From TrEMBL, chain A:
Transmembrane residue ranges: 6-28
Stored InterPro entries: ARM-like (IPR011989), ARM-type_fold (IPR016024)
Designated name of the protein: HEAT repeat-containing protein
Keywords (A to Z) from UniProt: Membrane, Transmembrane, Transmembrane helix
Species in which this protein is naturally found: Pedobacter suwonensis
Automatic annotation (TrEMBL), chain B:
Domain Response regulatory: 2-115
CC per GO annotation: cytosol; protein-DNA complex
Any one of the GO BP annotations: regulation of DNA-templated transcription
Superkingdom: Bacteria
Protein name: Response regulator receiver domain-containing protein
GO molecular function: phosphorelay response regulator activity; transcription cis-regulatory region binding
UniProt-listed InterPro entries: CheY-like_superfamily, Sig_transdc_resp-reg_receiver, WalR-like
Residues that bear 4-aspartylphosphate: D51
Gene3D superfamilies given in the database record: 3.40.50.2300
Keyword terms, alphabetized: DNA-binding, Phosphoprotein, Transcription, Transcription regulation, Two-component regulatory system
Amino acid sequence: MIYFEILLSVFLGLATFLITFLSFYLFIRKIWRRAYLKWDRMIDMLLRKAIFFHEGNNGQLTSIPITRRLKDNLNNRRFSNRLVKKIILAKRNVSGQYGDNLRQLYIQLGLDKKALRLLESRKWHLQAYAIQQIGTMGLKEHLARVYRYTNCKNNLIRMEAQIAVLNLIGFEGLRFLDIISYQITDWQQIRLLKELSTVPQTELTGIDKWLSSENASVTIFALKLARNYRRYELYENIVSCLDHNNPNVRKQAIATLTDIYVENTSEVLLARFERETYQNQIAIMNAIAVIGDVQNVSTLLSYLDTEKAQMKFAVARAIINGNKTGLECLVNDQRSKTYPLIDMIPQLKTEIR
Amino acid sequence: MRVLIAEDDELMLRIVEFRLKKDGHEVVLARDGNDALQKVEDYEPDLIISDVMMPYRSGLEIVAAVKEKHQTPIIILSGMGHEDMVLEAFRLGADDYLTKPFSPSELSVRIKRFGVVKR
């Protein structure tokens, strides 16, 4: 009986504690939510005012008017963080004078100085955040401080620094490719290419040097640059990448040659077919399907004997799409009457370009 | 002109709204894809400005759905400026494509280009 009473007391005590704790937690959360809502409204209004500052101002005001309440709130770390996040987001979305106004606001509020202090922090995530801010806000005067992080051993700091230099000086920022010793991940390459698509295009030099870089990821990225910006004058350099010892570089070179090719490119690719890895052989067939011609048909027909269905399909597709008489050649071949080609051909017919 | 803005980012929505109201347009706001399609039926806007990445339905789905029934011009306003995405938008029937970061003044000029009958 005594045990039961003790257990009941413990249970009731715990339940009371939990209910009190949860009520307190929900109450505090509600208060914060209200504060955040109020802050968001205040920040949105300020950003709207800042973005369109030059339109309503006939040169009378040199600085964006800021309310005292907002200035007071700036001392609050949470408010300040929220403001920085929103300014950065807005700056990424608007350009021209509208973007410059946001930059002015950022400097006017002294947020650039805070970012520079974060850059000196020992915590990597704060350093990365500071670099991101400097890049997005276009604080070119701090380029040298950001540039030295483009080959930083910390992956995230390095990634942010590489993006930031592109934001700051555009294509010229790609000079970090001359010196980096770390690999550029696929994800980072996508981010860099996306960032480059938003900066004004200028004469891009140095791709030839990067194509022969000792860092394989730099070579792959250079191949992507050559492809995206249609650098036909680099054709020979791209072909020489087909002999690179890294299969991923060779695969990217094959993909690039699908867009930058000359009359005999398909023959150049087929000449390397036998010594390539399986994945690269598939890549070659995909390339031939785009750039192939009638002269490749006899060679391609000899590859149809493969046991692998994926390869058989890729070869058949290359034969059909590579030239106008491809379908006829394939249908006339005895192997096309047997499985699996007999099933593949109807589908391939629908893909004829 | 009555313009529907479909955008899930509140700040962007307000920036575009502010610009369009300043230009004298009547503005209808939608914060996700479903909301946008509903408001196309309810308000019959003269022009639609839509983001691509939105909850429930993407901007491209909106273009396809709207162009099936209406001739309303659509401007895509997106951070995704990749060639494939732009071509896909035009293939589905988008009338213009503006990539972020964008200039609100440029958006104004592009809207004027459509010269839709004013209400």
